[in-house]
Amino acid sequence: MSLHSSSSDDNDDFYDYQDEILRTPIVEHTPSEYSGRRDFVDSHSHSHSPSASNQNHLSSSPYHQNPGYAYRQRGSTKSNHSGSSGSPASTSRAPSFENTKQAFAGSSLDTVSIGSVGGLSVPPSNYDARSYDGLSLHSTPRHDRPHSLRGIGDRSPLPLRRGGSPTSSVISDREREDIEQINVEEVEKRRRIQIYVFVLRCIAFPFNAKQKPPQHDMQKRQAKISKQELTKIKENFHAFLSGEMQIMADEAFKNAVQSYYEVFLKSERVTSMVRSGACSANDFREVFKNNIEKRVRCLPEIDGLAKETVLSNWMTKFDLIYRGNDGDQRSQRTSTTTNELILSKEQLYEMFQNIFNIKNYDHLILFNALQLDNPDEQAAQVRRELTSRQQQIDSGGFKMKPWKPRFIVKEMEPINIDELNTQILQLKSNLESVPVKGGTIPKHTKKPSRQSNTLPKIDVAEEGDQHLSKMDVVLSFGIEVKIIDLKGLKMPGNKNIYCTMEMDGLKLQTGLTPVSKPFWSTQGDFTTTQPLPNIKIKLYMENSSIISIDDKELAKITLKPTATSSKNAQLYTLTTTDKKIQEQLQLRVEVKMEKPQNMKYCGYLYAAGKKIWRTLKKRYFVLVQVSQYTFTVCSYRERKTEPTEMLHLKGFTVDYSEAHPDMDCNGAQYYFNAVKEGDSVTFATDDMYERYNWVQALCRATGQSHKPTPPVITTTANGGNTPNLPNLPKGQGEIDRARKHGLDEYVSADPCEFNHAELFQSLQSLTLEYRMNDAYTCLGWFSPGQSFILDEYAARYCVRGCHRYLSYMSDLLDKAENGLMIDPNIIHYSFAFCAAHVHGNKPDGLGTITVAEKQKFDEIKSRLRALLEHQITHFRYCFPFGRPDGALKSTLSLLEKVLMKELTSNMSVEEVRSVITKCLKDAALVNYTRISEFAKIEANVDARDETVFNIEQMPTLQYSHLISQAAHKDPADRLEDIIHLAGLCIEVLQQNEEHHAEAFTWFADVLLEHNEMFWSLFTVDMDACLETQHPENWEIFSLFSLLNSYLLTDKNLVHGEFHKHLKDIFAPQVVRYVDLMQSSIAQSVHKGFTSKEKWEPKGAGCVTSDDVLWKLDALQTFIKELQWPDDVFAEHLEGRLKLMASDMMEAMGNRTISAFGSMLSRCSKGLDFVVPSEICVMVNTLSDCKAQALKLCIMAGESTHRYHIHIEEYLESAIKHILDSLLERFLLVLDITLQKLKRYDEGSFLKSILTLTKPTNELGQEYIIFVFGNMDMICNKITDDGYFGNTLLEMWYGQQVDIIHKWLAERVEMTLHPYQLTCLIHIIKRLRHDFELQGTLCEEISNSAYDAICKRLSVEETSQAVNESRPARTLASLSVDLDT
How far is CA 372 from CA 353, 599, 697, 749, in A? Predict the structure, then answer.
């Protein structure tokens, strides 16, 4: 099949083949690499001789024929491509597609392989390098030239030395792989240099994009934190917590820093965040700020101290700790952040030099060869590129390019041509919009009038250019004339001289200076529109005569400067006008005529043309740039603003030429011409360098693709003809220098012959790699300078926007898949652009869609979805502590965008929800697995599989890494581990709620399912652990209390599935615990009061009561602290505990009353009776039970005081029983005492007998001792806050007085015996005194019975005194004593 066939099927086959050969590796070597390989092969060939079969095989192998090139065997599907072996490839420097076709036409496609990487063509593999000179500078083989002539740009391969016989050495597979690897690296190196050349042009002359500072916070990046800096930060905070830093801080701040250090800084997620390159000092600061804001918000208000002040103070201290001893870290970070803003061209050169790993020496060679400092050359280069590209499109050459895109619909091919034309027109428009700045209009020069818009003497080459007028080529010059000094003037006297400067009617004068010192250094500034102005300078002498009006003119001169004249001071000989001056006067003048920017070149030329400048003579020419695409060559005369003739250069081609015999002119030696169809102009100069400069300037103006080569001048030396290349100007010299170092091919390469889509992809990948390794947390965002160059490159070389962003997303996904943090927003923007393009919405104006774009988009979409699902599944570790801020929320939004089937269709909410649900289910397993591994808790896998969910429904969940080790541990250790694990799980969910819940605002129910799934995984380990525990191991309630307290504070998880399971698991345990406690307390009551109780005081009661009441209180407190979530069961437990307490108190009361009765029956009934301490303890026990009943038996609700009222009534009756029993015993002793006094009644048989014993007051004193002893026991031993004692004493005192009063009333008719009287007076007197000291109320003491007793005793005492003839004062004193 012929390669020139126009059939679309044939073209498709050809493109298939081209695509295949583009992927063929190319074997090439650098000189140093080749020398080592050649020595090895030589030595190997001499030591080994292959067999005959191997010889035949090697002789037929293309690789053996030329092992310096790669070879790829053509497949059977292309076997129909055949041809005769013939001529080598073309020797063009930039091989076109025609050259490629010639190469294919002359060789068999089964054995010929042409490699092209980014447009860098490589000769066929079976072609001998010694005869192939398509990319070399000379005919001498490259490997035979000195190494100094082979630089980094040397593109010719270095074939291995081949023996003359078929028995060549055999290269091992490893050796072949090494050679191929070296060749691949060499090709990649050349590829980078070529891309670097294109980038340099974009930097030097941008006309499509502008460098803009970051517009939003996502592009403003902070300096990233490295691993070493993280270690230093940890050391700083550890030093503060250890007290090594002299920073004053309160306890609250230290606790906050301790929590920050333990939870954040020591977390492995922070280390992974640092490794991902997404961690900055701002992230560290924001996490601490969010932490302390919650802490400070919980602090109580302090008068005079605002919480904002506390926050500010804490943040200041945090900064001090963070910086440590590096006090200048903030200033360094601030200074480095400025590098993220606008970059100069020098900074851009340096940055991309580092990106492409270009040596500075090579950069300088390329810089000079490309003339990057010459904007005119760069603009001309752009015009040449656009012209060449337009010609390719018009001629159809673009369709024959190997990288011609395939479209999803064939009808898009003509649309693509229109799009390319539109892009070129847009580039031309952008180039045309670049301003061409001319000089300013002179202030003192009259502007040309509008009446003479046309130039009558101008003959424009084309009729379409008649609109150019003289206003389009107006030039404005600024001239500085500086008169320095004068030499040669010798005049007597003390005269003053001065100079005048005049141009275009403007006259300026210097200052006066003496003739002896003719120095001025005076500058005059002029502006003019004349390319050849005249400046008149005159020397005057001041006339001091009164009669004369004008000063005397001494000499004059007329200067004719040009834009190319020397700007240094020179001596000019003046023409004297005064005959008295015989000397030669020389004036030192410095003239600077600044060239306007729209003047590209000027000078004197010889010119002759067909239509203009028909006479060959010397004229002054100026190359004027009217716009970026309009240049004219104008000829001027002296002192004329308007050009005499003008040539529009559009369509002309400039080249060197030989002298014509009919154009002989004195001075014209070096010729060049400007030719176009139907017209030509011949120019000549008298200087070779001047011709070179004019040709270069005109070539830039015409935008021609052909670059003229200066002719070689032959001179004769010693009778022989020797080519002699003179020292050319700088531009040509730099090109020769680049050619010497092998870089000329990159400089002269035609951009239209390269696949810029692939080159831009490499450029973008290298730039992104460099960006990800710099000192900023870029997250995939390019710096402003990098974005500027990428935009300029893509626009200048027509890189399709979809291809650009697809490549960008592919690189970003590669980074993200390798663990680096990428901002999802930038992926979102790129994906939205590509999705709009693929769906035909024309985001960049391109309506054509290529097959590669569609396939790449589908691949990116699949990869992106997998990445997003992975990130959402691992959201806790991909976005640790919610950093970067808003990244998780953007990831969810991006996932919604990816799941949209059509750009304009409504996405399925259920589909998005199902995907996120699946991810969060997987996230539950991931989070729990990592936490359990961290806590070294690994549950039974089989139990988890059966209990939680079906593995087949969740294929992403893997359990193979979990090994059951907990079964061999002690149950107590397992319980401790599960409690520790529960704390970690709570901490995980709290952090998720704090840092990630906001991102799942629209999927709160899904996040709740994630939490329930997380707890369901924990449930399996918890249940397995509880099964191994002893039934009476009540430490398990610590686990319940920890979990239940957290669940009650979470409004989403409270009464959820896990909470219900927790209640179901622990409810029987609680019931059992209460049952056992009830049994234990009942046994304590029974055993304690039956056999063990000694009624010794302990606490507020006895030993048994104190223990029982403590147990009851502890049980109720424990159940209360459990905060049982089920209200019904909680109320049931509370009622049961209250009833239990009531029953236990009643049982203790019964046993106390029984013990009291038994002990009281054993006590004496006489005056020697004293209340035993055991009875006091019994009273205290009942009082303590009564006091605790209010706390242990009361129950809230409608049934309030049900149990409390019952037990309180019982305890009050028990206490009253003891009180009545004691009172009865006390009164019984009084009755016995009064019965003894009754024996002294009148008429008693024993009265006379007892009187003989002469008693004094023994019985009264004994009774008072009895009363005092019991009062002391009651007051000191009973601890009921005085209730029982006061009541008993009051009742005891009152009833004693009543009994004595009643006893006296029975003897109202009898006279008391003196002994009776003495005892009663003593008893009444001491009772009043002692009971009053114990706090008995006066009303109770001074009652009517007491008054009656006092009166009776007073009467009896008076009566006895009369009978015994005592003084009256004795009776009066007794009455007073009794009254007091």
Answer: 15, 19, 15, 16
